[in-house]
Amino acid sequence: xxxxxxxxxxxxxxxxxxxxxxxxxxxxxxxxxxxxxxxxxxxxxxxxxxxxxxxxxxxxxxxxxxxxxxxxxxxxxxxxxxxxxxxxxxxxxxxxxxxxxxxxxxxxxxxxxxxxxxxxxxxxxxxxxxxxxxxxxxxxxxxxxxxxxxxxxxxxxxxxxxxxxxxxxxxxxxxxxxxxxxxxxxxxxxxxxxxxxxxxxxxxx
Length: 205
Prior knowledge:
alpha/beta, 6-stranded parallel β-sheet, two-stranded antiparallel ribbon, 8 strands, globular
């Protein structure tokens, strides 16, 4: 485990892709760490044969979460289909074309077959909160990654980013802070305290 900058990370991923077959890279980090942004920036630098795969498409449906009284904890590890996620990664490793679910934040629901990995795709950047979580439910997915990256951001910065996120969604300051402290920061602390070591750490602003 060591720190790496974005330029060196791009070179590292490129070197892996030269060995043939698909390269599957995990970009992990707590909520608010900038995983989606970093993944898109890396994909742009790596070129057209790279795809970004968000873990968010494996959110369990709200109706299912209501049945088990977990809707208020949506976004926690137990509110994702970890098994289905690992099965998708296996398909990506062995099948040329693979459709995958995405998540519509505005509608707050999963979109079946919202994305597709094409035959020409050589590098897949998988981004999500719990990719490195030290938990048996996520172990199967971790066995598939060729390279693992963890984004490092201070806890105080994460908290402010998450408050700002909910403010941008129309919540007032009190509502935003209640949402962050009642759910989001619980997930932040879980990721910070209970994740396996990555191959590299990328510090973000």
